Amino acid sequence: MSLVHEYERATNARDELPAHSWARHVDPGLVSTATDNDPSGVVTYSLAGAQFGYDMLWMCALSYPSMVAFQLVASSIAAQTGKGLTVNMREHYSRLLFYLAVGRFLVANVFNIAADVVAMGVGAQLLWHGSVPLFAAAFGILSIALQWFVPYARYARILKWLAASLFAYIGVTLVSHTSWRTLALHAFVPHITWRVDYFTMLLAVLGTTISPYLLFSQAEQQIEGDRPPTAGAKPLAGKRHLNKTRSDTLIRTVLSNAVGLFVMAAAASTLHASGHVLANADDAASVLRPLAGGYASHVLGLAFIGTALLALPPLAGSAANAAISARDGHAGRQRNRPVAHALLVVMALGVSIGVALTVMHIEPIRALYWSAVLNGSTATPVMVMLVLLSMKRSAVGDLSTHWTLRALCWLATLFAGAALTAEFACEWLF
What we know:
Pfam families: Nramp (PF01566). The chain has helices spanning 32-36, 39-52, 57-62, 64-81, 85-92, 95-128, 132-149, 152-163, 168-175, 180-188, 196-209, 212-226, 239-274, 281-286, 289-292, 296-327, 336-359, 364-389, 393-396, 403-429. It is mainly α and 430 residues long. It has one domain (32-227, 234-429): Amino acid/polyamine transporter I, CATH 1.20.1740.10. The protein starts with 31 loop residues before the first helix and ends with a helix. Residues 1-30 and 228-237 have low confidence and may be disordered.
């Protein structure tokens, strides 16, 4: 999905740390499929298909307009104010509400990083066998090194081909002779089961589609594209960049949601159809067996490693930007050093937790799934604050967000809140 910016190496190497900028050097659609469908997303969609068949396909199709609307609103706010979402929220909401929302966001991102580190260890074990904790630690350190020393555009050109393994799920759906009428019916007609596990899964799927970090990173990307050349200059309107962001968002969201839909459909046509559950990585790999045969584990391993390495920078970058923006209002090059430090801390914490989870033999599938549930639970307060912020004249001036965008944002916010409420209600009443 949306790419957050990293800070490029300062012209004065003696005074600046090597934090790179890649949002303005990489086409936003280059790795969109991987960044939104990271291992946590792949596992969540697979679990949804294995447990509920085609009943949750509608989430991938019907969430598309609201996903686009939220990202466009986030970009518009950043373009009008020249500030990220965290700074805007800090200036226009009470400290308690603001810190609760940002705190939940940081916790969700760190746990998501940890889960993706676990997935890289599992992916390497599927490819080469060996120790999952050692693989997880090695790939976690590799990710930190890549973010610190190598511009994202350089290694994304290679890793995007590993992420292309996600398209194998489309092939599975085709060779399984799934009825297109069945897919279309379930994609556009919601089917709701009043059970706590259904609504928990709904939150997990929501956490892989309208993820809070995507909104924060979208705003930061807009600022990076609009940043004035001098510190005292007025923030640019960024109309040209905003128009490009709009078209990019429409395209990459279609790609991301389409892959999610086919992952879910592939699991439904294999595991759910045969009555099998998805309990471990071998079960997850079996979804690909109709197409990849004996190489199914290798394809899944490549998907886990490739998508995690591509998704970790936006996860860590958005968390680092949120942490620094919550503390001070520095902009431009003044933010390079603290953001670089914060990114290291976030990544080190996420990698440490991920390795610890593998040492404690926590089932990777559970870790990946619950990271998505946490993201889904975190989304609601962030969505509420964002849509209210877009209506504050004191915050965004004459921001002209079309009423349809606001309506779609409110619709998704109300749905997310209803899903969270329904989960608690089902847990207590049934």
